[in-house]
Amino acid sequence: MTLLYPDFLWLLIPLALLLWKSTYQIQYITHIIILILIVLSLTRPVQKEALQESNIQAKDIIIALDVSYSMQATDLTPTRYGFAKEIIRVLLDKNPTDNIMLIAFTTNPLLLSPPTTDHTLIKIALESLNPNFILTKGTSLERLFKKLSHLHLGHKNFILITDGGEETKIETLSSLLIDSDISLTILALGSKKGTTITNKEGSLLKDKQGNLVISRINPLLEDLAANVGGSYLTASSSIASTVTSLNDILHQNNLQEQMIKKTQHHYAERYQFPLLLALILFLMLHTRMLKYLLILFALLGIQAEASFIDDYHLNKAYTSYHKLDFNITIKELKKIHTHSLQSQMALGNTYYKTGAFKNAIKVYKSIRSTSLKTKQQLYYNIATAYAKIEAYDKAKIYYTKTLQLGEDKDTLFNLKQIALLKDKKDASLGIARPKSQNSDASKSESQEKDSDKDKTHEEDQTSSGSGSGGGENKKKERKKSKLTVDIDTKPQPLGSKVYDLINKGYIRETHPW
Known about the structure:
Low-confidence stretches: 432-487
Number of helices: 19
Strand order of the largest sheet: 6-5-4-7-8-11
CATH class of the largest domain: Alpha Beta
Shape: globular
Strand content: 5-15%
CATH topology of the largest domain: Rossmann fold
Largest sheet: 6 strands, mixed
CATH superfamily of the largest domain: von Willebrand factor, type A domain
Structural class: alpha/beta
């Protein structure tokens, strides 16, 4: 037996004092015992079960972030470094199950986070790094690649985010990458024209000869990617489009997802027992008609049993969903007698995962809710499912409905993408856009809009099958799910030893730019 919140045990001290000073009246002592049982429930007793290994489908990715001084250039907003950090955050959110390692490097590489699927830890490590404490101005790709080859990690997908520095040893770098057995994707930050760099005091950075330092993308990067059969792209002005291009390159390289083992402790909750005993003592003490109370318990037990069975199937469905066993998930969800928002949403998401997009749309449209956030989520999911089956006109309608309920960057981006996809599809079919439409076409289009408007009116109606309001707020799963970091929690700064490792070799820099 383990207590997850043992600090609540301090509350037993005043209760013990009250019990010690009691006048031995049964009612008084019973009240103290009830309070003690409630405190024990608050400590959350659990029965620790054996460690269990679960397989998750994910890719192994190494992200190397250049943190040299040249990354403070402002040709990207707010700086190259700030832009790169945001790229990594969005990339983590877009690939929530991938096993990711994060490395920061200048003239020396430093491991910020070992391979993990806990992306919250990676974000905390990223936020803890303060570039103001980094003194080195150079960028050594050679030392970074040597570090990777010494780690012996096996085949990995390697994303290099850098402006490239001034290295010219392309043959050495290429051989190191080949020996490391990694698939290279380079995201180059900056521009070929280059820009000046501002010092902390506001002046422009100069070299030892007094010349202005111009930081630009090293052309070696593109040649390096070509030499090792990797991919190369430059950052666009938009974070979302850059991440999308990066993800597209990863998929075009036919990166195969692997089954990664994750070991976790599982607990069986035991707080219900002291809480139930406290409730029984309270009712026995303040209820005279004990026999009617027992009948009430029996009646409630029938409903509780039905609710318990539904909860059991829902929990089994969630478990199999996280294990990516979608066939079991669908079977368990169909065993639920009283459908709720959570169960229906899970069913729609499962159909989506299995590629049964029409079934997913049907389930999403059957959900009724008065919550604007839930409606927005449903419209987004329906639109995305329509886009998957290339019904771009309907996808546009539902993306528009999503935006009518609130601004959303992902929805805006997807809306632009389906417009491009629709044009490509029309072009491949040889469909030309007429300058004007005849009355029959206008009438048909008007009828379709009226039909969609009627469907929208039906979907906005409330129904008793949507579950309670608390249920809506409890489980709102969107396909653009993300692991959130508590915004009130300030990341702990890295120790001085960390920056010593990064700055090692600072004195011996011969070509810092």
